[in-house]
Specification:
Elements (H helix, E strand, L loop, with lengths): L4 H4 L3 E4 L6 E4 L9 H14 L1 E4 L6 H11 L11 E2 L2 E8 L30 E10 L7 E5 H6 L3 H7 L3 E4 L1 H7 L8 H6 L3 E4 L1 E3 L6 E3 L5 E4 L4 H14 L6 E4 L6 E5 L3 E5 L10 E8 L5
Parallel strand pairs: 2-3
Antiparallel strand pairs: 1-2, 3-14, 4-5, 5-16, 6-14, 6-16, 7-13, 7-15, 8-9, 8-12, 10-11
The protein binds fe (ii) ion.
Fe (ii) ion binds next to loops.
Length: 289
C-alpha cells in the first residue's frame, strides 16, 4: 500500500454524509494555525463544503483570527448584533442579562433555506459559527448541496435558468420573515438590492451550482409574481434528502461552510425554555459569475 495524501493530512477526516460535510479532528483552533495546516483545511473546505470541528474552547478573538485565514471578514450592517467588542462577530442569543431564556427567537430569517451575504454584490464565502450554548432539542443547522441541486435539474430546467438573474434583497427577506429588528433607513440605503446569476460557477472548483435561497426576491426582466413563483419552485427543488446534512449541535463545536455551494437553515427551538447562543462570522468572497 502506498502512502496516500489522506495519511499525510495533519488532521483526521470523517465524512458526515456520503456527499456533504466532514468532521476535522486534531486541530486546536485556539492555537495559531500555520500556513500549511490552513491550506489542508481549505482543501477540505472546498471538497466537503461543510467542515465540523469537535468541541473545544475558541475565544472570540481566535474565531476571528481563524476566519481571517479564509479572507476578509464582513462587518455586518446590522450593528445591533455585534458581539464581544468584535464587529466581525454576530451573536444570536435568546438569553436575558441573567442568562435565562427570554422567549424571543433572535433571527427568524435563519429558519428559511438561504446563503449568507447573497444580498450584497460581493457575497459570502465561508461562514464560521461557534456554538456557545446549545438547546437540547431544536436549533439544528441543516445544509444542502447546491452543486447537487444543479446537477439534478433536467436539461430543460438548466436551459430555462441558464441566463436568468435574481435580485437579492436583505430588507425583503427580513421583512417577509417578520424579523423583530427591522432594518433602519440608513441600513437599507447601505445595502440596496443586487442581482446575481441563478446558475453560479464556483470560482475555485469551477463547478456549477444553483445560487438562490431566501434573500432572492424576484427575477430580472420577468413579471414580479412569475419570478417569485420560479424562485420558490427552484428553492424547493434544490433540497434533496440524500444531499443534505442535518447537524445537531453540541456546545463548543465550530462549523465552517462554503456559501457559494451550499444553502443552510436553522430549525426552530422553544426560546422560552431552551437556551441557544451562537457566534457567527462571515468571510467575504467575490462577485458571483
Ligand atoms: Fe445564515
Amino acid at each position: 500500500m502506498n502512502a496516500t495524501a489522506a495519511q499525510a493530512l495533519p488532521f483526521q477526516v470523517r465524512k458526515l454524509t456520503p456527499k456533504l460535510g466532514a468532521e476535522i479532528s486534531g486541530v486546536r483552533l485556539a492555537d495559531r494555525i500555520p500556513h500549511e495546516l490552513f491550506h489542508a483545511i481549505y482543501d477540505a473546505f472546498l471538497r466537503y463544503q461543510v467542515l465540523l470541528f469537535p468541541p473545544q474552547e475558541v475565544p472570540p478573538d481566535r474565531q476571528v483570527a481563524f476566519a481571517r485565514h479564509f479572507g476578509e471578514v464582513q462587518i455586518h450592517v446590522m450593528s445591533q448584533y455585534h458581539a464581544d467588542g468584535h464587529p466581525e462577530l454576530y451573536r444570536l442569543s435568546n438569553l436575558d442579562e441573567k442568562g435565562n431564556p427570554n422567549g424571543k427567537h433572535p433571527d427568524k430569517g435563519t429558519l428559511a433555506w438561504h446563503t449568507d451575504g447573497s444580498w450584497q454584490r460581493v457575497t459570502g464565502q465561508a461562514t464560521i459559527i461557534y456554538g456557545e450554548v446549545m438547546p437540547e432539542t431544536g436549533g439544528e443547522t441543516h445544509f444542502c448541496d447546491m452543486y447537487g441541486a444543479y446537477e439534478r435539474l433536467t436539461p430543460a430546467w438548466k436551459a430555462r435558468i441558464s441566463k436568468l438573474r435574481a435580485v437579492h434583497n436583505l430588507d425583503f427577506s427580513r421583512t417577509r420573515r417578520h424579523g423583530e429588528d427591522l432594518m433602519t433607513e440608513e441600513q437599507k440605503r447601505a445595502k440596496p438590492p443586487v442581482d446575481h446569476p441563478i446558475v453560479r460557477t464556483h470560482p475555485e472548483t469551477g463547478r456549477k451550482c444553483v445560487y438562490l435561497g431566501d434573500h432572492a426576491e424576484y427575477i430580472v426582466g420577468m413579471p414580479y409574481d412569475e419570478g417569485r413563483a420560479l424562485i420558490e419552485e427552484l428553492n424547493a427543488m434544490a433540497v434533496h434528502p440524500d444531499l443534505t446534512y442535518e447537524h445537531h449541535w453540541t456546545a463548543g463545536e465550530l462549523l465552517a461552510w462554503d456559501n457559494r455551494c451550499v444553502m443552510h437553515r436553522a430549525t426552530p427551538y422553544d426560546p422560552a425554555t431552551q437556551r441557544r447562543v451562537i457566534r457567527r462570522c462571515t468571510v467575504l468572497g467575490e462577485v458571483p459569475r
